[in-house]
Amino acid sequence: MVLLQLEGVTKSYMGQQVLRGVYLSISEREFVVVRGRSGAGKTTLMKIMALLLKPDGGRVIYKGINVWSVNNSLRECLRKTIAYIPQFLDLLPNLNVFDNIALPLIARRTKSAVIEERVNEIAVELGIKGFLHRYPNSLSGGERQRVAIARALASSPEILIADEPTAYLDDESSEELYKLINVIRSKRRVAIVIATTELSANIPGADNVYILERGVLRNIS
């Protein structure tokens, strides 16, 4: 089943066209990789897919709904089923790992007992149970990335979008992250989309690999 479709999506900033008629389709449990050099427009594309940024032209269809033709309330409901992890993670340094993961649940006024259960379940799954009491600044890059993923999964999304998740990781940590992504996809039945500047590295488990160049997205699988 197709979850998300981009149909002829365009986007410009200050007169410069960043995306030129992008077409893309994401299905349930699909693992999609978007490659591109720095400045290619990957972050813009990721935010449009996460329903955080309105395109200038074209359509974004999510679950059969043209998301920018409906009211804000319905669009916000749809947006809550897509998790977006920015490149710089946005973990709050004044909150410990447990509270960072719990943030989406707190925002939805989830009961404390449910928050406790879900955070601990995800922490065990992602191998971070041992440092729920620690703070982001005391963690390695790979550990912070896992915390960001755990926070994204807390709201049980149908699509997980990560903007350059390996940007600050060494090769070993990147490999571990990709293994984790495939485990998550299999266990939680979530579609995953990542953007990366790695133009040639093998990314295990990817169903479709695209490259974004001069605003044009093409499949290179």
What does this structure look like?
- The protein folds into two domains: 1-81 and 157-221, 3-Layer(aba) Sandwich (Rossmann fold); 92-155, no CATH class.
- The protein has six helices and ten strands, in the order βββαββαβαααβαβββ.
- It has helices spanning 42-49, 72-79, 97-107, 112-125, 141-153, 171-188, and strands spanning 2-13, 16-27, 31-35, 57-62, 65-66, 82-85, 159-163, 191-196, 208-213, 216-219.
- A six-stranded mixed beta sheet has the order 6-7-8-3-9-10, sandwiched between helices. A four-stranded antiparallel beta sheet has the order 2-1-4-5, with helices on one face.
- Helix 3 crosses helix 4 (112-125).
- The longest helix has 18 residues, at 171-188.
- It is globular, with a radius of gyration of 17 Å.
- The two termini are 20 Å apart.
- The mean pLDDT is 93.
CATH architecture of the largest domain: 3-Layer(aba) Sandwich
- The level-1 CATH class of the largest domain: Alpha Beta
Biggest sheet character: 6 strands, mixed
| Adjacency order of strands in the biggest sheet | 6-7-8-3-9-10
- 3D shape: globular
The figure for the number of domains is 2
> Into which percent range does the helicity of residues fall?
25-40%
SS elements, strand count: 10
Element order: H for helix, E for strand: EEEHEEHEHHHEHEEE
Please identify which CATH superfamily of the largest domain we are dealing with: P-loop containing nucleotide triphosphate hydrolases
Distance between the termini: 20 Å
Q: How many separate helices?
A: 6
CATH fold-level label of the largest domain: Rossmann fold
Report the radius of gyration as a whole number of Å. 17 Å
